[in-house]
Design goal:
Order of helices and strands: HEEEEEEHEHHHHHHHH
Helix content: 55-70%
Largest sheet: 7 strands, mixed, barrel
Radius of gyration: 61 Å
Structural class: alpha/beta
Length: about 325
């Protein structure tokens, strides 16, 4: 009897232990005997994500976090165990976030190409993707505790700002504000009086503007008459004649320029010969100035001039004597 009771108690304890293990497995949604695919994910920080936390895809558990380790270059790697036959996104990424208000965390698999509302998460994913494609990029969202602390800081700042506003708007500030409003009202009255005084001036300005407008109208009419005359001259052929004459003059000037260019070209081709001529002339004039050579002596010596003058004088005397005494020089005989 006693042995049978011990057997019953032992069986009951074994059954209870099996029920506890099965319940734990069912609660954790683990798949016994299925190793699955191991893929590491790279994070800057994993927050409160721990080993054994679920890995979900579109809200459905598809694996568990098997290992969390330090990576190279200030990165943290979380090894994810993915169940077999799970259809993953083409470009997967991992978002670690709080799963409930009780501190439970999970790793959610998303597509790297999907838009994210959190700019910090998008930045972390891009930085992790730049490290290489062999590891999934990952990012961590702040948990409820961090958000609550941030909200508390914001509430404190708002309370401080409200206190400062309350301190700033005391009785003295209100009196100064009332005084400023009265001063502004007086200034508006002065502006109104000034506007009334300037009404006459504005009327004179308007009259001047009207006169200017009349003058502009007259100028427009004169311009219209001038354009009419130009149109009439164009119709009668005078403008065409002037344009033809101008074209002919332009053509003549072009021909003259071409001739001048031809002359310049010829002069340039004879530049060497002209240089020799001017060089010889310069040497000749130099010798004439220095009295060298026959021409130089003739130019620089006054004896030739004196003798020439005397010879001309004697020739004139001889001609005069021939006129007076022709028989002395000429004999005429008929037979």
């Amino acid at each position: 009897m006693k042995g049978r009771d011990e057997i019953i108690v032992g069986a009951t304890m074994l059954l209870t232990f099996a029920l506890i293990v099965a319940g734990a497995i069912w609660m954790s949604q683990a798949r016994v005997g299925q190793a699955g695919l191991l893929r590491p994910a790279r994070f800057r920080t994993v927050g409160s994500l721990g080993v054994g936390n679920p890995v979900v895809l579109r809200g459905v558990r598809v694996g568990r976090v098997q290992e969390i380790r330090l990576g190279t270059g200030e990165w943290v790697e979380a090894v994810l165990q993915i169940y077999p036959d799970v259809a993953l996104p083409a470009n997967p990424a991992v978002i670690a976030a709080s799963a409930s208000l009780f501190g439970e965390w999970q790793a959610g698999i998303v597509s790297f190409d999907d838009p994210l509302d959190d700019p910090n998460a998008r930045r972390d994913l891009n930085l992790a993707a730049e490290e290489g494609s062999d590891v999934w990029p990952g990012a961590t969202l702040p948990d409820i505790g961090q958000l609550t602390a941030q909200a508390g800081r914001i509430a404190t700042d708002i309370a401080s700002f409200s206190a400062r506003i309350e301190t700033a708007f005391d009785d003295e500030v209100v009196r100064n504000l009332q005084r400023s409003i009265r001063d502004f009202s007086e200034t508006a009255d002065h502006i109104n009086d000034f506007a009334g005084d300037q009404t006459a001036v504005l009327g004179q300005v308007a009259s001047d503007v009207q006169q200017t407008s009349s003058a502009m109208s007259e100028m427009s009419q004169s311009l219209a008459r001038t354009m009419t005359r130009i149109d009439a001259a164009t119709a009668s052929g005078q403008l065409d004649t002037l344009m033809g004459s101008a074209a002919q003059i332009s053509q003549d000037l072009s021909s003259a320029v071409d001739d001048f260019r031809s002359v310049l070209a010829m002069i340039q081709s004879k530049e060497e010969s002209i240089g020799r001529i001017f060089g010889g002339a310069d040497a000749l004039f130099t010798r004439m100035q220095t009295g060298e050579g026959t021409i130089g002596m003739l130019v620089s010596d006054s004896t030739l001039y004196i003798e020439t003058y005397q010879a001309i004088a004697e020739l004139r005397g001889l001609i005069a004597d021939i006129k007076e005494n022709p028989r002395r020089y000429f004999k005429f005989s008929v037979f």
